[in-house]
Amino acid sequence: MSAPACRNADPALFFPAYGVPLSDLQIRAAKELCAACPVRQECLAIAVRSDESDGIWGGTTPIERRRMRVQLARMDQGAELARAVVSGEGPQVLQGLRPAVVHHLFAMGWNAERIGAALQLAPGEIQAARAMAARSLAFLAFMERHCPKSWS
Ligand code: SF4
């Protein structure tokens, strides 16, 4: 195992005192250390998976990790909603869930025309949703590589 770059760093750099927000300076300095850390990817994946809500982990702030968790959760929710679309339930698909739903509908064999008609989306919107879903899928793959779901 490689040694983490923060092994000799002041913990206060990564974890502020209780109730004190991280300063921009602190965040920048911690992120610089993380950027050169040989275990950064594992550190980030574990922190996201275990919902670490404090401090800097893997070069990310709590808010950044929360966004990543939302991204993961949306892919799961999207699968459920896509099944509801396929079964004709006509669920409401909020914009944030659109990429995941579009992705899952394609995965279920629907084409762009059918998806557009079901979700009332223009071809450009479907394309944009697919591009966003591709980013989420890349992040899902990153998570599975560095901290598989089966570990949690
Ligand atoms: S990536 Fe994780 S282990 Fe590495 S320096 Fe940052 S907080 Fe420490």
From TrEMBL:
<dbReference type="InterPro" id="IPR003482">
    <property type="entry name" value="Whib"/>
</dbReference>
<keyword id="KW-0411">Iron-sulfur</keyword>
<keyword id="KW-0408">Iron</keyword>
<keyword id="KW-0804">Transcription</keyword>
<comment type="function">
    <text>Acts as a transcriptional regulator. Probably redox-responsive. The apo- but not holo-form probably binds DNA.</text>
</comment>
<feature type="binding site">
    <location>
        <position position="37"/>
    </location>
    <ligand>
        <name>[4Fe-4S] cluster</name>
    </ligand>
</feature>
<comment type="similarity">
    <text>Belongs to the WhiB family.</text>
</comment>
<dbReference type="InterPro" id="IPR034768">
    <property type="entry name" value="4FE4S_WBL"/>
</dbReference>
<keyword id="KW-0805">Transcription regulation</keyword>
<keyword id="KW-0479">Metal-binding</keyword>
<feature type="binding site">
    <location>
        <position position="43"/>
    </location>
    <ligand>
        <name>[4Fe-4S] cluster</name>
    </ligand>
</feature>
<keyword id="KW-0004">4Fe-4S</keyword>
<protein>
    <recommendedName>
        <fullName>Transcriptional regulator WhiB</fullName>
    </recommendedName>
</protein>
<feature type="binding site">
    <location>
        <position position="34"/>
    </location>
    <ligand>
        <name>[4Fe-4S] cluster</name>
    </ligand>
</feature>
<dbReference type="Pfam" id="PF02467">
    <property type="entry name" value="Whib"/>
</dbReference>
<keyword id="KW-0963">Cytoplasm</keyword>
<keyword id="KW-0238">DNA-binding</keyword>
<keyword id="KW-1015">Disulfide bond</keyword>
<feature type="domain" description="4Fe-4S Wbl-type">
    <location>
        <begin position="5"/>
        <end position="67"/>
    </location>
</feature>
<feature type="binding site">
    <location>
        <position position="6"/>
    </location>
    <ligand>
        <name>[4Fe-4S] cluster</name>
    </ligand>
</feature>
